[in-house]
Amino acid sequence: MIKSPVPDFGSIHVFYTRADQISDPCLLKQYRACLSPAEIQKADRYMKPSDRHLSLVSRALVRYVIGEVTRQDPQSLNFLTNEHGKPFLVGLPDIHFNLSHSHGAAVCALCRNAPVGVDVEDVGRHTDFSIAKRFFSFCEAELVSRAPEAEKRKLFFDIWTLKEAYIKAVGRGLSIPLNSFSFNANEAGIQITFSDTGRVEPTWQFFQWRPESGKIVAVAGRSASPIVFKHFWCVPFVGIDPNSLIF
Fold first, then answer.
1. Which residues are bridge partners to 2 per DSSP?
2. 124 phi and psi, to 5 degrees?
């Protein structure tokens, strides 16, 4: 394991951890010690032990990777949320981050001076694919509906995670209707088109990563210049796996 590299102005770093594989009591005690009282209270409110554990590790992941990048004590970091609930760092306006967790996995995306959003999903979970008709754009819902059964699940979660990552990057949550924009993936990459204009918005850039079987991560960032996405496996307060660095 090595320490986290510092994202430059043209990159987004994505850190993935399996909370359900972290059980060292000393490490968990360290995680709890670095959290704020509000974060501890939030984690403790979950009824299921697995949910409490995932919340604890997820918040420790955020504090760890930001502490590595800023060279500040993770416990000293202060967070607030905007009117839609998106968290941001107090006193560090150039550091943008976003967190997502699902079914034992957590992921944190970091970048400098650009909004970022991330989503992780367990593609094996029970899903009613008919909800695409309610939440996806017409063309996306048609793609899912007509897809062969063997491809339907992958296509659904490809679109779902991209939509979640985008609205989290914008920071307005579900005040943005999920059917007001569409995604298209081709040889040029992943493109977003807005229903009100019908135009592709090239400043929004997207990345998807399958860190392991059954998990998918989607990342959204906005920049007029090309963004380099780098992804890593990570254990908070231990380090990142140097074999997972992708440049």
1. 240
2. -90, -5
Helix (H) or strand (E) holding 100: strand 95-102
* pTM exceeds 0.85 for this model: yes
What whole-number distance in Å separates Cα of residue 117 and Cα of residue 163? Answer: 10
For the stretch 135-149, pLDDT in tens is: 999 999 999 999 998
Q: How far is CA 156 from CA 48, 153, 212, 215, in A?
A: 28, 5, 18, 13
Domain edges within the chain? 11-244
Tokens of 198: 């019908």
Say if residues 111 and 101 touch (Cβ distance below 8 Å): no
Contact between 232 and 15 under an 8 Å Cβ cutoff? The reply is yes
Could you tell me the maximum CA-CA distance found in the chain, to the nearest angstrom? 54
Task: Give me the residues paired with residue 79 across strands.
Answer: 89
Structure tokens at 159: 């679109």
At 14, give phi and psi (nearest 5°): -120, 125
Angle between helices 25-34 and 49-70 (to 10 degrees): 70
Q: Which amino acid is at 239?
A: G
| Residue reference for tokens 């509906």 | 145
Candidates 130, 118, 122; CA nearest to 207 is 118
Which CATH fold topology does 11-244 show? Ribosomal Protein L22; Chain A (3.90.470)
Nearest to 131 by CA among 149, 157, 110: 157
Neighbours of 40 (CB within 10 A): 16
Q: What is the pLDDT of residues 160-183, one digit of tens each?
A: 999 999 999 999 887 899 999 999
Q: Is the distance from CB of 167 to CB of 151 less than 8 angstroms? A: no
